[in-house]
Amino acid sequence: MNKRLFLILTLTLMGVTSRAQSLEECQRAAQNNYPLINQYGLIERTTALTVDNIAKGWWPQVTATAQATLQSDVASWPSELRDMMSGMGVDLKGLKKDQYRVGIDVNQTVYDGGTINSQRAIAIEQGKVLAAQNEVNLYNVSKRVNEMYFALLLLNEQITLNNDLQKLLDGNERKLESMAKNGTAAKSDWQNVKAERLKAVQQGTDLESQKRMLQAMLATFCGIDVKNVTKPALIVTDAQNNRPELRLFDAQLRLADAQEKALDAALKPKVSVFAQGYYGYPGYNMFHDMMSRKWTLNAMIGARVTWNIGALYTRKNDKTKLQLQRDMTLSNREVFLYNNRLDVVRLNEEIDRYRKLMTNDNEIITLRTAVRKAAESKLVHGIIDVNDLVREINQENAARVQQSIHEIEMLKQIYDKKYTTNN
Hints:
This protein is α+β, with helices and mostly antiparallel strands. The protein is built from 11 helices and 4 strands, in the order αααβαβαααβαβααα. The chain has a single domain, classed as Up-down Bundle (Outer membrane efflux proteins (OEP)), CATH 1.20.1600. It has helices spanning about 5-15, 25-35, 40-55, 80-85, 115-180, 185-220, 245-265, 285-290, 310-360, 360-380, 385-420; strands spanning about 60-70, 100-110, 270-280, 295-305. It is rod-shaped.
């Protein structure tokens, strides 16, 4: 590989690895990295298994039984008949007090009044509620990303301005050092500016440390290597609310509706067919078993209608509880929307405030720069002392810092509004 190709590949790789991450990329990465993301699959699988189990209520229900009993008394022959038959040489033994049976009962539901379908609907709606709650929890991750991302953006701006301040102070320091050597400026003036430059270096070191800490936090939270961040574009948001909390409230209301349908299904009769069979003693032929005392095979088939009216006892209270549950959900929804509207109003005011502040930032910086340049000229001609120059340099730097704060804070408020309405 020739040197030119190696240099091109190296620069390409450096460009890829140093590419800045956008806010949207960090938010997506944070949500994919957050442990709650795994719960979507768990909720879906749990719901599917629950629904499958409920659907098996239509399958034949098979019960195997084994029973051994010892009774205090059993059916017996009348003593007159037993004595008469004994005289004829026939022994009427009667039933034994110890009885045994091993059998299988099969029950097949034919009509359940909609109970299984209502339970299936409840399980599905419960899964949707859990998924919606998980979506709400995951959505809150974006807020935490916003806080770290814009704080990192502001630090980047402050580091850039600090570097500019250091260069400006360094230029004046070199100028004053030369003047001090030529006897046209006091040595203390040069030392004063040098001290200010070293102070700016210290501030830069502190800012760099804060940046590394925030980068590490954001990288850990997002699960990606955050090399740098880029300033997001100005966006226009509308008042339409698409927060996941609203979908959670809707899911809770649908769950209450499904639970109410289950109350109606509980009042309907149930129809089933059944088959019973057992091998044991005694069997269904009682007279035969009273004489032979042998184990026999026995079977029975039939149909059954059951109607449990016990659900009527609690129906009124159950329906009232469901209505209270709906009312509470609707109340929570109204409270959420009310607070959300207040947040939007506050954010709109903040955005307008920063826009108004920014209208004068450029002019203030232009004026401060002109004053600082004039102070540099006056210092050379001995009209002002170095303290006045340092003050003007700091005021110019403060104006630039204020401009960056206003811009980043306005962007943050805009994206906070986007988070508040999710549009």
